[in-house]
Amino acid sequence: MIQQTREKFITLFGKEPLMVISPGRINLIGEHTDYNNGFVLPAAIDKKIVYAVALNNTQQCNAHAVFTNETVSFDLGQVQPTPGWINYLMGVVYQLQQGGHPVTGFDCVVAGDIPVGAGLSSSAAVEGGLVAALDSIFGYNLSRMDMALLGQRAEHTFPGVKCGIMDQFANLHGKKDQVIRLDCRSLEYEYFPFNFPAYKIVLCNSMVHHSLASSEYNVRRQQCEEGVAAISALHPEVASLRDATPAMLEEVRAQLSQIVYNRCKYVIEEIQRVQDATHLLKKGDLQQFGQLMYATHEGLSRLYEVSCPELDFLVSLAKERPEVAGARVMGGGFGGCTINLVKQDQVDDFISFIRSRYQEQYGKEPEVYVTTIQDGVSVID
Questions:
Q1: Rounded Cα gap, residues 53 and 137, in angstroms
Q2: What is the largest CA-CA distance in the chain?
Q3: Which positions ≥6 away from 241 have C-beta within 8 Å?
Q4: 270-285 pLDDT, tens per residue?
Q5: Least confident of 20-29, 83-92, 205-214, 225-234
Q6: Contact, 341 vs 329, CB < 8 A?
Q7: Cβ atoms of 379 and 132 closer than 8 Å
């Protein structure tokens, strides 16, 4: 794909480009905790966005997307939110400009094999790849954390999704065969080896596009903030659900709607699960780690209500299989993928079982991806 993207760029623009590989991400545990200042446990994977980029000595940016086979242009003096995939690129350019980083005209080709809507964060990969490319070309010397925060701001201001920092962070900080526990409040992070050669990470795509995710994501954020407001009236030190305990939540239960109570209960429990999960990784206990994944799914489905019947069905199928250590919905929810930890020597049997049962139930075959944990964004000179 890298060579094909380079050749496409040369065909379209007639010069040699800078190449950038920008991965998607998984999150093993810690879902919807990032914007509540909690902990997450993501990793970069081998599904990726590939960029070819070069300057063009104008004030125009020309971007060709291989996945839609269209070229879109915009003027650097008129960068404003626009429908479509170009919005993510424009968001990055706008945030660079706002930060005082000069941007002149460039040409780029964008390709990739991250399935859109699968919960693998293709948007963060698009943002991270472009900011890394422009940083390399213009010599901004941004740190990886600076790039992640810039990508997050781009997502907030242009697509309008008030995401946490996890996706952009994992995209830029990933390391091969390691997961990262990120403290989303302090932005401190620690790597933990994910070295279980007898197991594979298998993603089962429900083929349900999470069209509700953007709007409902912002609703969930508001509901969490409502819970924090009630708790902080009694406990002023509580600035986010990261600071709250189950006992504090029970104190204000009568003041909250059942929905807001459920949302907060899930987040408080999930923040603790991430801490428990890293202790299990240190001990090499993948079976108990998997049980925490199942508990996360139950919370996401029943309390946070970001699952759907198809995702619940996929997790219930995984629970039937002794070769599966754990499974859950991954990402924003309302569709996308489940993440499953499956014994390597039984991956083929697992995939056949999932495909046939899902086809039988829903009349469509799920896409299945066997992934590996890889490095974050890399620039190829």
A1: 9
A2: 67
A3: 36, 37, 38, 224, 227, 228, 264, 267, 268, 271
A4: 999 999 999 999 999 9
A5: 205-214
A6: no
A7: yes
Angular region, 189: left φ>0, alpha ψ -120 to 50, beta rest: beta
**H or E element in which residue 44 lies:** strand 42-55
Q: Taking Cα atoms as reference points, which of 167, 148, 151 lies closest to residue 159?
A: 151
Write the secondary structure of 163-220 as one string of H (helix), E (strand) and C (coil). CCCHHHHHHHHCECCEEEEEECCCCCEEEEECCCCCEEEEEEECCCCCCCHHHHHHHH
Angstrom distance (rounded) from CA 186 to CA 57? 40
Residue 61 pairs with which residues in a beta bridge? 74
- The 10s digit of each residue's pLDDT in 6-27 is 999 999 999 999 999 999 999 9
User: Which amino acids are annotated catalytic?
Assistant: 167
- Give tens-digit pLDDT for 89-145: 999 999 999 999 999 999 999 999 987 776 777 889 999 999 999 999 999 999 999
Helix (H, G, I), strand (E, B) or coil at 114: coil
| Confidence (pLDDT) at 142 | 98
User: Looking at this protein, which amino acid is placed at residue 85?
Assistant: W
| 159 touches 214 (CB < 8 A) | yes
- Closest CA relative to residue 120, chosen from 49, 189, 200, 217: 49
Q: Which residue has the tokens 């997450």?
A: 40
β-strand pairing of 60-65 with 106-112: parallel
| Pair 89, 308: CB distance under 8 Å | no
pLDDT tens digits along 230-273: 999 999 999 999 999 999 999 999 999 999 999 999 999 999 99
Using the 8-state DSSP alphabet, how is residue 255 labeled? G
What is the distance between the alpha carbons of residues 76 and 89, in angstroms, rounded to a whole number? 12
Distance CA 296, CA 218 (A): 20
